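Researcher: Sequence of DUF177 domain-containing protein follows. Predict its structure.
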Amino acid sequence: MADPVRTQSPVSYQLQVNRLPQKGTTVAIEADAAQRAALADAHDLLSVQRFYAELAVRPWKGDGVRVTGRVEADITQACVVTLEPLVARIDEEVSALFVPEGSRLARADYESGEIVVEAEGEDLPEAFTGDRIDLGALAEEFFALGIDPYPRKSTAALDLPAEEEGKEEGSGPLHEGLKKLREKG
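Model: Prediction complete. Tokens:
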């Protein structure tokens, strides 16, 4: 079961961004067995067999940081119909912008009283405090986006009880009451 007060990602990877090289750096995060078990517990999965993230971290507009890359994972979930194990693969593209708290890039322009958001446009930059960004937490966010909230085996079917014979659709006391009201009016 997910812990609502958990603050640190099981795959936490703090990167100091105030000394980021001009060309940036690439970070690879591969979860060990304990981290995979913690991810499975945090996201209500039966298991996580593999978790791997490769992220390119580059300077952006002076004091900002752009993170791009991929998160890949192999997971096992419970089928929502049969509760049998269901293997799934996650392959999510990562794209995020970060700016230091107090940066002019972090402040939205509210003077006009309107905020224009494009549905297909880039997300607004996230503000960070200090000189570090948790790339593991970012990778976990995109991992969570790739999890099917209602996993279902292709062969799974619900066994619904058969309709009672002779009982027509819309029968019952409520239906009869409505029928009488319609006849009066």
